[in-house]
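Sequence in, structure out. Go.
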Amino acid sequence: MPQLTDFTGDAQPYEGGDTYADYRRTDVPFTRLVNLADRRLGAGVVATNDDLFAEGDNLVLPQNPRFDWDTFDNKGKVMDGWESRRRRGASADEPHPVDSDHDWALVRLGLPGVVRGVIVDTAHFRGNYPQQITVEATRARTAASAEELLSPETTWVEIVPRSSVGGHAANAFSVEGEAVYTHLRLKQHPDGGVARLRVHGDVVPDVSWFGRIGSLDLVALENGAAVEDASDLFYSPPSNLIMPGRPQNTGDCWETRRRRDKGNDWVRYRLAEQGEIRAAEVDTTCLKGNAAGWAALFGFDAESGGDITDAAAWFEILPRTRLQPDTQHRFEVDSAVATHVRLDIFPDGGLARLRLHGSLTDAAARRLADRAAADVA
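Output:
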């Protein structure tokens, strides 16, 4: 499992100004994939062995960690991350931790999936980060308790071997394999603090659930859909459109810069799998003076053998339709089988959410069931 960054050692003490001015990071390709350990997707920290200084729940918060240099409480410096107490040895003659000493956090992924890469982010932990980390993974019930996860019957697979990390840095590791996981165990050797754990990969939904409820949102990120391309990423990512729940503010939407030409903006999504679309929701909630004026929706079926770059291979699902600001729009559409959709907005602006209700084709349901059945490596 290659370590993509080689950040080691302490960062310099904070001396004021921009808290991220000397933050160490490198762009890695897997960060374009969904973060399976995002609280907004249902991720959580089931348990830690120690979080005296800072709670383990901070590991899965979606926002970047913050640092207030003059904020303290009765335990010490307040840190935006998970931080355990300093370990000690067994006696005055042996005051240092032994090599096997470590702290751990059990993290439930928000969505089951194949892990492609992990970032152990030590932002603002400049001299109080762990010397090394290990990441293990398993597949269990979504609602598995700490006792179940720690029982001898649970098989844990090492996906990031024990590796050195640096302080105030985004320490990145790629992960191989196609196994589907639901939970991770982050170990820090021997102790210290980690700000965030980002777990990027591919969502693999439980197709049996779709059969029980009879329909699904084919473009939902939580069902395995993903952004493939977009015309504009200036203000906010188009992945926001397929996130769960209703938007909280305009930062939770997709908004493009103002166009000064005669073109229009668009985003292309790969659906959860091939499916029959029967209804669409286009939501402009929270967008009052910056909502898109019109929207249109087009479909493409890769199973038909067409070329996704050929405009003639795309078919209309929703014609260009006027949108109202701060409004949830619902449309009945003629049934259409597709693997991809392209949402066009005119001329620019923002949308809050896109929902495409329908069902999987039989072949798609079989493919998803086979993938979800992948054994733990």
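Check: The chain has a mean pLDDT of 94. Residues 362-372 form the longest helix (11 residues).
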